[in-house]
Structures are given as structure tokens and as C-alpha cells.
Amino acid sequence: MQDAPRYYTVTPSPIGDLVVVGDGEAVTGIHFGARVAPRPAWRRDPAPVAAAVDQLAAYFAGARRDFDLWLAPEGTAFQRRVWAALAAIPYGQTTTYGKLAAEIGHPGSARAVGAANGANPIAIVVPCHRVIGADGTLTGYAGGLAAKRTLLALEGAL
């Protein structure tokens, strides 16, 4: 079976360029531009991911709190459970890796939740930036701690 085609565009944001990827029906990735290079099989075409780009722009302008996009992240069953739990964290709120682990029925697996959080392929829309350390400190983020701080400040969570 051949993989579905991927379309992408690069869009600017207050935290740097974002590479928005989709398969023509769903968003499959939102990546920090400095951390991902478009794959040779991807076609640069903004039309299939236009809704995501528009919603991201509205989010950064403070006019959108929730996203209404069909998402198709690729990952293991455990990763998808973590990502679903991330998607349920309300705008402007944070949680910890330990609390997230308990919520998905894996208390004591905060490190595994952290690894799944770090593998999240759909940044911002699946809000991995809303997860902080048990002591309330900002912890690692694929886009860097400055980006995480900016996103949480935008949402009023700092």
C-alpha cells in the first residue's frame, strides 16, 4: 500500500516558521521550521492545509482558543492516547506529566508520557506546550522553552 500524498506549506508565527503538513483531508503535522525539513515526497501546496494555517493565525492573534481541524497524527497506540489527553487540556491551563499519566491509566509512567509528549507531531493544535514539570517549572519543548513560554503567555497560563 502506498502512503497518501503529503502537502505542506511554511507559515510564519510569533514563535518562528511552522511547517504545516496534511494529506489532503487531515493535518498530519505541524512542525517547527528549524527542526524539520520537508521530505522529497511532500508537495508544497498551501491549499490542502489552508484551514490549519488560517486557524493558527487566528490563535496567534488571540481570536481562537480551540481548533476545528481533522487530525491524523501517526504514532503508537500509547502515543495516540497521550496525544488525545493533551488535546483535552483546556486553553489557558496546564497539567503535569504525572497527572497526564494518571489520567490515561498509567500512573507512575510520567517519563513515558513525557517521551510521547515530545513525539507529538502536531504542535500547538495538540497542545503539548501545556504540560509542565511537577514543580511547576517549564520543561523541554521541541520549539524551545522561549516558544513554550510565549504560547503559555498568549493563553494566560503563566
| Helix segment tally | 5
In terms of structural class, how would the helical and strand content be classed? Answer: alpha/beta
Indicate the mean pLDDT: 92
Question: How many β-strands, per DSSP?
Answer: 6
- Poorly predicted regions are none
Description:
- This protein has 158 residues and is of the alpha/beta class.
- The chain has two domains: 7-60, no CATH class; 77-154, Winged helix-like DNA-binding domain superfamily/Winged helix DNA-binding domain (Arc Repressor Mutant, subunit A, Orthogonal Bundle).
- 30% of the residues lie in helices and 14% in strands.
- The strands form two sheets. A four-stranded mixed β-sheet has the order 3-2-1-4, with no helix packed on it. Strands 5-6 form a two-stranded parallel ribbon.
- A hairpin with a 4-residue loop joins strand 2 and strand 3.
- Helix 3 (97-103) crosses helix 4.
- The mean pLDDT is 92.
Sum this structure up briefly.
This protein has 158 residues and is of the alpha/beta class. The chain has five helices and six strands; from the N terminus they run E-E-E-E-H-H-E-H-H-E-H. The protein folds into two domains: 7-60, no CATH class; 77-154, Winged helix-like DNA-binding domain superfamily/Winged helix DNA-binding domain (Arc Repressor Mutant, subunit A, Orthogonal Bundle).
